[in-house]
Design goal:
The complex is a heterodimer of chains A (about 325) and B (about 350). Chain A has about 325 residues and is mostly helical. Chain A is built from 13 helices and four strands. In chain A, the strands form two sheets. A two-stranded antiparallel ribbon of chain A has the order 1-4. In chain A, a hairpin with a 3-residue loop joins strand 2 and strand 3. The relative contact order of chain A is 0.21. Chain B has about 350 residues and is mainly alpha-helical. Classes of the chains: A mainly alpha (about 325), B mainly alpha (about 350). At the A-B interface, helix 5, helix 11 and helix 13 of A face helix 8, helix 14 and helix 16 of B.
Chain lengths: ~325, ~350
């Protein structure tokens, strides 16, 4: 089933611009990168890009669901990432890494469920709700660790995650790609996916056709919370250290990727694969900047400009397509 | 269940919800006064308010943005940027011109937000998120991520010293501005039109209000207030830093929302924001005197904020009801007399 699109009619550009813009952008980035630096197009470097995008990429999958269901955005991501990271490292010495990881993901899932209830069922504004719940969750996580840094005690788990299958593909990248594949299948092939698009494009009509609108929107936030927790667990294990600020900035990175991937903030359109493409594009761009010796700070300028540009194009295309 | 619904639907409950700022502020003051010795002393109040002044200036801008049905997350970054301009340009331009440039930075940043939202039609959440990243990155770029200091530490005393033994300069400035905002919102035609734009920009446009101009204006105003906050904050500590104001926007939004302004737009008041700020000031002061750690304070602020918007949502269906004291008395009297009429047999 092709992903539902909202473009209705008119010119070639508005019909294919949004679809082809991103792949074209990625190709251009690859060409420019290889021209600027001979280190860019190496297996080593591209693998590094993949590793770097794995942690935030898992969150991107969840954020895509939030966007598609017109849930605006989940700003509690940094908190849920921290919960996952802090819990897995804090508990692993007493109950083992695997059990600690499960507890970490579950705790984040609970936070996601609360967000889902507040946004989906109670009908609160997602932005303010997740901002507030984020501070609460992060505060609780800090109470748990006493506001300091937690260190890990399981180098084996770290070695496993940073290790490589067949000596080439890093384990963490495989996990990330599995999450992307699962997320893509759910959104494009399952009933939940079809409902998500319906809820995002026209909530009241969808409500009228007996789709559980509230539940679908709640599930999107539950998913994001759970995946952010999972990503925090992975981050904690790879770094073997976690502090409450560990997830800072991930919400913006995830939103950037989703928005650059052409997933509309107005809901109802976009796919996980395009969000993945958006992430890849941003990461390649960052990688080029790093290779060119551009310091970290100006990269924020590029990211900010990217978000604004991508959304402006989205809105413009939509208007030309006869919507709005 | 029916009894709880009855309570949720009663006039008294609605009146409490409508005036919740007063209720919450009163409760906070009473709890604070019983728990913290010397809580109600003037010096404590003056100090507590002084620390809220920067936050309050941001909240003034946000009140207007929220009434217009928009959101501005970039205030903290604008604050840092204009602070850096204020301090960093002192050597070249002199102190007062540098402060004016800092102010101009706020205006310009607000205009950028306005351009993104009004001209490019980007949702204000994403637009200000993007501009927040942008401004913050600019701060780090200019200062190379290091705080910078000004040339004369005594220059900023104007804003941080109590004037005539009362409040500090910035607290007084905040009070003056919030009262001006209150007058503008309630007494001026433009103020009332802002509410119309906030509840429904399209229908406001249809009735002859230039919605887009108003939307552009609120972002410029919000940026300007963030600029004022940045100038004052950086002058008072004689430092400009790229990390200033990192978490301030959430607390400012919390203050505005506690004050009864709705995120959906079209409703809100300056006095409500003042109440919200006083509540947060009292709460923070009380918790700090009890040496509650910062993250627990965050939890408390977050929980209060969530409960309030939840409460607001539960009763929002019947918000239009008139629950002023006069109306309540009149309604009670009429229901009393109608009951009496029922008892008297018809002639």
């Amino acid at each position: 089933m092709p992903p539902p699109t909202r473009t209705v009619q008119s010119g070639l550009f508005s019909r294919y611009g949004a679809r082809l813009g991103l792949p074209a952008g990625i190709v251009v980035t690859l060409i420019v990168g290889s021209l600027l630096s001979d280190r860019f197009l190496t297996v080593q470097n591209l693998t590094n890009v993949l590793i770097n995008m794995s942690i935030v990429g898992i969150i991107v999958v969840g954020m895509t669901f939030v966007f598609v269901t017109r849930g605006l955005a989940d700003l509690s991501v940094p908190a849920t990432v921290a919960v996952g990271g802090l819990l897995v490292l804090g508990l692993e010495s007493s109950i083992g890494t695997l059990a600690a990881a499960v507890v970490g993901v579950l705790a984040a899932a609970i936070a996601g469920a609360v967000n889902g209830w507040l946004v989906g069922y109670a009908g609160l504004n997602p932005v303010i709700t997740t901002l507030a719940s984020g501070t609460i969750v992060l505060g609780i996580a800090q109470v748990f660790v006493g506001g300091v840094i937690v260190y890990g005690s399981d180098p084996d788990a770290q070695a496993f995650l940073t290790g490589r299958v067949f000596g080439v593909v890093p384990v963490i990248v495989l996990i990330f790609l599995a999450v992307v594949a699962a997320g893509h299948l759910v959104l494009s092939r399952s009933v939940l996916g079809r409902w998500s698009y319906a809820v995002g494009s026209n909530p009241s009509a969808t409500q009228a056709s007996a789709v559980p609108v509230k539940r679908v929107r709640a599930i999107a936030f539950l998913l994001t919370g759970t995946l952010a927790g999972f990503s925090g667990v992975l981050l904690g294990i790879t770094l073997q250290t976690a502090r409450p600020g560990i997830g800072m900035g991930y919400e913006f990175d995830a939103i950037t990727a989703v928005v650059v991937g052409g997933v509309s903030l107005l809901g109802g359109s976009g796919t996980v694969l395009y969000a993945f493409g958006g992430l890849l594009f941003v990461q390649l761009l960052t990688n080029i900047m790093v290779l060119q010796g551009v310091p970290t700070e100006p990269q924020g300028i590029v990211k900010g400009a990217l978000i604004a540009g991508a959304v402006a194009i989205d809105v413009a295309l939509r208007r030309r397509g006869g919507r709005e | 269940m029916t009894s709880s619904r009855h309570i949720l639907d009663s006039d008294v409950f609605h009146a409490l919800v409508r005036n919740r700022v007063v209720v919450i502020l009163g409760a906070t003051l009473i709890i604070g006064a019983t728990m913290v010795p010397g809580f109600l002393e003037f010096r404590t109040a003056s100090l507590g308010l002084d620390r809220m002044a920067t936050l309050g200036l941001l909240a003034i801008g946000l009140t207007v943005v929220l009434i217009a049905g928009q959101l501005d997350l970039s205030g903290g970054a604008i604050l840092a940027l204009s602070g850096i301009a204020t301090i960093g340009l002192q050597e070249q331009l002199g102190q007062i011109p540098a402060a004016l440039v800092g102010l101009a930075v706020g205006v310009a940043a607000g205009a950028i937000n306005g351009f993104l939202v009004v001209v490019l039609r980007i949702n204000s959440l994403v637009a200000t998120l993007a501009s927040m990243l942008f401004f913050r990155a600019l701060c780090h770029l200019i200062t190379e991520s290091r705080p910078i200091s000004g040339i004369d530490p005594l220059f900023g005393l104007v804003v941080s010293r109590p004037i005539a033994g009362t409040f500090t300069g910035r607290t007084l400035l905040f009070f003056v501005l919030i009262i001006l905002l209150h007058l503008w919102l309630t007494r001026s035609v433009a103020g009332r039109q802002l509410f119309a734009v906030g509840s429904n920009p399209a229908s406001a446009e249809a009735s002859g209000i230039r919605s887009r101009a108003y939307l552009f204006g609120v972002f410029v105003f919000s940026g300007t207030m963030a600029g004022v906050a940045g100038v004052i904050q950086s002058l008072s500590v004689n430092t400009g830093s790229p990390v200033f104001g990192e978490n301030i926007v959430l607390i400012a939004i919390a203050a505005v929302v506690i004050g009864g302004t709705r995120l959906e737009g079209g409703r809100g008041s300056a006095l409500g924001t003042l109440g919200g700020l006083l509540t947060i000031a009292a709460l923070t002061t009380a918790m700090e005197y009890q040496s509650v750690p910062a993250y627990l304070q965050d939890i408390v602020t977050g929980v209060i904020l969530l409960l309030l918007i939840l409460l607001d949502r539960t009763v929002s269906g019947s918000q239009r009801r008139d629950v002023t004291l006069v109306a309540l008395v009149r309604r009670a009297r009429s229901s009393w007399s109608s009951r009496k009429n029922e008892r008297t047999p018809a002639p």
